[in-house]
Design goal:
Chain lengths: 469, 277
Amino acid sequence: MPEVKKINRQKEKTPMPQLSPEVRITNFDEVALGLDREAAINEAMRCLGCPDQPCVGKCPVGVPIPAFINCIVRDNPKAAIKTIKRQNLFPAICGRVCPQESQCESVCVRARNGQPVGIGYLERYVADTAARENLEDPTRVPNPTGKKVAIVGSGPGGLAAAGELAKAGHAVTVFEALHKPGGVLEYGIPQFRLPKDIVAREVSKLKELGVRIKTNVIVGKSVTIDELLDLEGFDAVYIGSGAGLPTFMNIPGENFNGVFSANEYLTRTNLMKGYLPETRTPVYRAKKAAIVGGGNVAMDAARCARRLGADVTIIYRRSEAELPARAEEVEHAKEEGIKFQMLTSPVEIQADENNWVNQVKCETMILGEPDASGRRRPQPTGEYVTLECDCVIMAIGNSPNPLIGQTTPGLDLQKWGGIIVTDETTGQTTKSKVWAGGDAVSGAATVILALGAGKAAAKAINQYLKTAS
Amino acid sequence: MYKVLEVEHLNPTVTRLKVEAPEVARKALPGQFVIVRTDEAGERIPLTISNYDRGLGHIEIIFQIVGSETFLLDRKKPGDYLSDIAGPLGIASETQGKNKVAVVGGGVGCAIALPVARQFAQDGAVVHSIVGFRTRDLVILEDEFKDFSAEFRMMTDDGSYGQKGLVTNALEELICAGHQYDEVFAVGPVIMMKFVAQLTKQYKVKTKVSMNPIMVDGTGMCGACRVQVGSETKFACVHGPDFDGHLIDYDLLMRRNTQYRDKEQANVQEVGMVCNA
Ligand SMILES: Cc1cc2nc3c(=O)[nH]c(=O)nc-3n(C[C@H](O)[C@H](O)[C@H](O)COP(=O)(O)OP(=O)(O)OC[C@H]3O[C@@H](n4cnc5c(N)ncnc54)[C@H](O)[C@@H]3O)c2cc1C
Ligand code: FES
């Protein structure tokens, strides 16, 4: 007999329990605490189970959202995790960092009259519950195929590709330039948004599948892609080297002391754990920090600076409506007392007699016609404001590192450095036996897109290895 | 983990470590460096590869004890391990096609100058080496330089060994004696490189210097290593470490290198280092 589904007509999302702003600006503990069973079931019951599933269409990896939510309604997290994992290897990560408001939740029918279903909250609930209660079937190590695949970069894309290829029985080695795997998940996104033990857990699961992770290997320096293919016997290579090259504004004063790229500031804080007194990597503890930019990177840098004791202002050249960061991060930043100086663009950084930055001069902007990105273009007004600060953090974008392109003949690049793929659905590059995806191809984007690209390329590589002799 | 094979204290403040790092040794070239992390709580610091053995998979690093990280490195014994060594990084020095070069090393900078100087010689150049130290007790690598140098000048600030004076005195003397150098290659304290470059600019001799800014990743990811070269900002880890000595803003580099002084001093206390600087 078919079940009659009971719908929870509550208009608002079931609230996510959080650390209070006063507490969280004093530490790096995770801000969002996760829904408990009761709250999760309550939220799950808001899902209408729409037959045409608009949310699934907006998920870059096609997670069967209504299906896993239905498992939560039936209080069956074991079935829920199995359902999600068919499409998404890292739900504990995606539940926390995906921009749900512009993906699955943006088309949720419930949002037409109230708030969308908290799909991210529920994805996280399932992943955390499964981990805590050990609900997943033990990893089965597959029969080896005898084929070897090299993965360059251990960000979400590289790890996803590694997982899929290992499950197919290939011998997978991941080469990572830094001393720890995880890519942006490890060095960029802070602990208070994505606890590092979650990244470590996913990495150790891959190791159980037989994936080898070699840290401290800079492909293009320690070894080239041609050497991997020709000398080290790899049958295929996946490049997931991300977009790690920081952009500066090229304005006067940018090399004064106290001016950092967000990458430097975040790497010192997150990868090197500079916020802990027991580590020896310094991170500048500013009194008054100005963060330039409006994306996730800017929010993360701002919120780290806040936790390290600074009074923080975000300088953004457009208006609030154009902020590219996840809505939740903007909201959290505001709760933490971070100020937003909108429609403002730095033109010069000034310093004191010790060459330490003491103010940033900015031009006031107004919004003009929409540009190629569809957002209204900021235009200068000729009016200036000056902001006092002892630290400026540039978070205005990252592009792919040219190292791999420079050392890999036959691998064609875009003018701006992105790796060209000849087939978007597989990530095949212009070089045979080499695939690529994630930020290295698209430029700075999102975790889930990198994950999707890694997975798609793994499928194509697997296909290729089946037919290659 | 990377195994320490040999430890040699070259002088009271400078130590040479030989470490097992086959992946680095396989590709290393003179002028390149590695990023080293001594232990899990440690910083990532850049150190020049002063020698390597591709066959055995060994590299050597020479460092001066200037802070917590080098202090802890100095305490390593053969058989101990370092958490991380990543490399080789940076662009190798250009050593080919030169007839005559002068290599100038100051203090521990001699450890960086040595492999480059040796490579100049191997690539067919006549090499004049000028090395400078504060005092006799601090002299390192003298015999190694002499092995291939057509001219060798030892300078000490106090005259306790070699000639009394600065490396620039010896260099100027050689230039004035009519030696025409295709290039001067200088490594040492920033202030020394600044004065070498001033001198060679006067005599219009092309000059390369090896930059030693603060670094984190060493792969172009953070920009901590920014140096000003003419009107351009460069990342020393990927565009260097060698740059045109006549274009570098040395004062900026000196100031940037003090950015984290407070934490560095706290670290020194924390690891129980007796400050002798
Ligand atoms: C601070 C910050 C916050 C972000 N917040 C969010 C968010 O909330 N939600 C979201 O969806 N996205 C967010 N993003 C974007 C997201 O993190 C990236 O889109 C995603 O990580 C890209 O994954 P990737 O696998 O392509 O590369 P990356 O995660 O960049 O990983 C690439 C890895 O390759 C390594 N590598 C690079 N070159 C080499 C080489 N030559 N040899 C060996 N290894 C190499 C790098 O060290 C790195 O570990 C954020 C990004 C940043 C910087
Ligand atoms: S050390 Fe980070 S970019 Fe050079």
